[in-house]
Design goal:
Order of helices and strands: HHHEHHEHEEHHHH
Oligomer: single chain
Strand content: 5-15%
Structural class: mainly alpha
Shape: globular
Mean pLDDT: 84
Largest sheet: 2 strands, antiparallel
Number of helices: 10
Low-confidence stretches: 125-130
Strand order of the largest sheet: 1-4
Radius of gyration: 20 Å
Number of domains: 2
Helix content: 40-55%
Length: about 200
């Protein structure tokens, strides 16, 4: 890649063409290895399903619970990223948020807070008296479902939504699903959806 970049007089386009046309770029071992940051997860979900929040402040609560509040990094280096996004307290939230948002369910925002966030959360206490709050959303299911080409198999839909290969259990589950909407919610609530 360095040779391509140098020989192209440091032009980015030839380097990107080289990378995106290289067979190794699409090998299974190189796909779906990056854990999405909380913001990537939330923004990706919102864009994919064109979600409208009746109470947009819930997005800040998602960020705080998952450990990445935009414009408030833990230090000048920013967030550590990678596997640091997944721990015992955040993994269940990450898996629960898509189904909660897409079904308008209730989520408990009483997760653990970092010591640095406690002061911020204390100032917000009067706004969060009830930590079990209904996440009032309106996903645009008509737009999402109309974007799926007619006759596309369940496996193809899953491969479009997920970066890594599906596990055998997930493949079996989606193939037995009779409702596309329920299948999609199951896909975005899977561990595989956490990867990019």
């Amino acid at each position: 890649m360095a040779d391509v970049f140098y020989n192209a007089n440091y032009e980015i386009k030839p380097l990107l063409e080289y990378v995106f046309n290289a067979p190794w770029f699409y090998e299974d071992k190189n796909v779906g290895n990056l854990v999405k940051s909380p913001v990537e997860l939330i923004v990706g979900l919102n864009r994919q399903f064109d979600i409208n929040y009746e109470r947009p402040a819930v997005l800040m609560q998602f960020q705080r619970v998952l450990g990445q509040v935009l414009f408030h990094p833990p230090n000048v280096a920013g967030w550590p990223g990678g596997r640091n996004w997944i721990d015992s307290s955040s993994l269940m939230y990450r898996i629960k948020i898509p189904s909660t948002v897409l079904n308008g369910g209730v989520i408990d925002f009483a997760g653990k807070a970092d010591p640095e966030d406690e002061a911020f959360l204390a100032t917000q206490h009067n706004q969060q008296d009830n930590v079990n709050q209904r996440v009032q959303t309106k996903p645009n299911w008509d737009k999402f479902l109309s974007g799926i080409p007619k006759g596309l198999s369940k496996t193809s839909i899953a491969q479009f939504l997920l970066e890594p290969k599906m596990s055998a259990a997930l493949t079996k589950s989606i193939n037995s699903s009779t409702d596309t909407r329920a299948m999609v919610i199951e896909l975005v609530s899977s561990p595989e959806y956490q990867l990019a």
